[in-house]
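FW: tagging you since you asked about this chain on Friday. Here's the raw sequence from the shared folder, copied in full. Didn't touch anything.
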Amino acid sequence: MATLAAVDIGANSVRLKIARVVRKRLQVLHEDREVVRLGEGVFHTGALDPAAMEQTVRVLRRFQKAVQAHGATEVRVVATSALRDANNGGAFVQWVQAAIGWRVEVVSGVEEGRLIHLGVMANSRIAAGRILLIDLGGGSCELIVSYKGQIEHVYSLPLGAVRLTREFLKHDPPTETELDQMRSYIGEEIRRIAPQLTAHKINLTVATSGTPAALSELWSAGQDAETTTVPRAGLLRLTKKLSALSIDRRRLLKGIGPRRAEIIVAGAHVFAELFSELDLTSFRYLPFGLRDGILAQMAADDQDIGLSKQLENERNNSIFNLASHYQVDLKFSTRVAEHAERLFKLLAPVHHLPPEYGSLLNAAAMLHEVGSFISRAGRRRHAFYILAHSELLGFSLPQRRFIAAIARYLGKSKITVTSPAVRVLSPADRLLLPRTVLLLRLARAIEQGRRGAVLSLRAKVEPRNVKLTLVTRPTGAELELWALERESNYFSEVFARSLTCAEV
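HL: got it, structure written out here
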């Protein structure tokens, strides 16, 4: 049984959750959390405060002891808005690596939203049609629109509770002028995306994280029966009440801890403005979040826990949307991807690529022509830039870089370790890149005429030679055979085997 650990380094707090996979389900073994306000300095100076960094590292050392005590076999450490925005974030990442040995992965707002959505869907049964999932952190607010368990869109806004408190609320309790200025800022950010959000026709609003947890408990305390659903009218009343209280009085309220009391006013106003601008009726609080999504992703990568279809759909939808945006010929790219998939299986005894590289090859096959949207001249370089800087749901940053590198070297450019596309890859990815590129070059050659001349493939693998047989349409595949012949030298260079091709 695999034991997994997820660490979430947020702008407000650092969280740890350790779980074991038991009968295809995650069984939580240990949780820990501490408020460190890592993002507070970022929102004022643009840099992480050294004292906050030191405190965070101390907390991570404590987490490390818990991870070792529970025998976790895999740890994933994810950082969000504080490190996304900090100009000294790299120094903190290096500090953690040196002090603890953990690699900190700084995720984008979209990937953060995807993981939060995955954590909710993996741990709850929500039967509504179209859902708006709100996750309010210390530095940002993620809004995820989901339909039947699949993400339709992710919006990330700079509306974190710590960020807003630091920027606008200077008095205790805050003055009306401060509140008005903060509301205006929040409203302006929300109105930028309001038309797109309201067009989704939301059926249910779900909220995660500390602010809605506190609001939900406050609302429930004033009701006859316990409830996790907060109506808009109740939310607005709570926001008004909290805004008028001092920090000391807020700390006495049920559900609000000492540190949450410092930022709850800003968090409540984000919810109030969201509900007013988007005409939402109520929200339901769920106690899941980013770390649950990290664990679910880790477990799904390790073994089947019933999420493979959802994760595959997320990736495929994201690939399709990006390809459509850059006007890729989808019929052509789909045929190339099908040939690449077939080659990946047929030539497995030759390329020895890990199974997970099949999905990276598929993504590169579907998206290798995105660079032509900018210009045919230099299209490989354009494709690399687009793919390296685009969001592809379900793919980590290292995976996106690898996909981009495949597309970059699909032409005749030589792969060198000093090139920007290769330099950012891990040592393992650098080693496997030429093999993956070659498979896509072969798949692209098989579709050289862009007419679907090749119906299927066969392969005979011998110690010194690989023979590919193309099953073609009656019109034949002379052009495709010519294109494959041009790849024979590169094939010999990469696989130390000769390549011969024929058609039937």
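FW: The chain has a mean pLDDT of 93.
HL: agreed, and The first strand starts at residue 3 and ends at 9.
FW: great, closing this out.
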